[in-house]
C-alpha cells in the first residue's frame, strides 16, 4: 500500500501539527526505551553495588577498630627522643666527632668497655639503627666508630 503524501498535505494545518507531534512523541519514546532505559538500569545496579560495598567496608572498619589497641596503651608507649650526638658525652665515653651524611652519619667515640651496651640502648631509644661499627683499642681506651641511619620502621 502506497502512502500518498498529498493526503497528508490536504489535512488542515492543526491536524498536520498533531500528526507531527504524535510521530515525534512515538520516536522519542522509542529512543528512551532503546537507549536511556538500559542506561538508567545500569546506573541503578551500580548504585546498589556501591551501597553493598560501602556496607562491607563499614563492617570491616568496625572489625578493624576492635583490633586496634585502646588509647591508654598508645599513651603508655615511650616516645623516642630526637637523636643528638652530644647525648653520648658521658663519664666513661667521650664524644670525638660526628660526620652527618645524606642518610644518617658516622659517630666516633672514645670509651671504655662498660658503656658500650648502654650506647646501643641509647641509640635504640633515639630511633637510630647501627649499620656498621668498629672497636679499636687505642692507648688503653676504645676508639668506637658507628655508622648510623634513622630507623624508618615507625
UniProtKB/TrEMBL annotation:
Cite the Pfam families for this sequence. HofO
- The DNA utilization protein HofO C-terminal domain is annotated at 83-152
Q: Has keyword Membrane?
A: yes
Membrane-spanning residues? 13-35
Q: Does the keyword Transmembrane apply?
A: yes
Q: Which UniProt keywords apply?
A: Membrane, Transmembrane, Transmembrane helix
Classify the source by domain of life.
Bacteria
InterPro entries recorded for this chain?
Answer: HofO_C
Name of the featured protein: DNA utilization protein HofO C-terminal domain-containing protein
UniProt source species:
Superficieibacter electus
Amino acid at each position: 500500500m502506497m502512502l500518498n503524501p498529498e493526503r497528508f498535505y490536504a489535512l488542515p494545518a492543526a491536524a498536520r501539527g498533531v500528526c507531527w507531534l504524535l510521530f515525534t512523541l512515538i520516536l522519542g519514546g522509542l529512543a528512551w526505551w532503546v537507549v536511556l532505559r538500559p542506561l538508567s538500569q545500569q546506573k541503578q545496579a551500580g548504585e546498589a553495588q556501591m551501597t553493598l560495598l560501602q556496607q562491607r567496608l563499614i563492617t570491616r572498619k568496625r572489625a578493624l577498630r576492635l583490633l586496634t589497641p585502646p588509647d591508654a596503651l598508645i599513651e603508655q608507649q615511650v616516645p623516642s627522643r630526637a637523636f643528638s650526638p652530644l647525648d653520648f658525652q658521658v663519664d666513661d665515653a667521650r664524644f670525638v666527632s660526628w660526620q652527618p651524611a645524606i642518610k644518617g652519619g658516622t659517630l666516633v667515640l672514645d670509651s671504655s668497655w662498660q658503656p658500650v651496651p648502654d650506647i646501643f640502648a641509647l641509640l635504640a631509644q633515639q630511633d637510630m639503627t647501627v649499620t656498621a661499627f668498629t672497636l679499636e683499642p687505642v692507648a688503653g681506651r676504645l676508639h668506637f666508630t658507628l655508622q648510623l641511619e634513622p630507623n624508618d620502621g615507625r
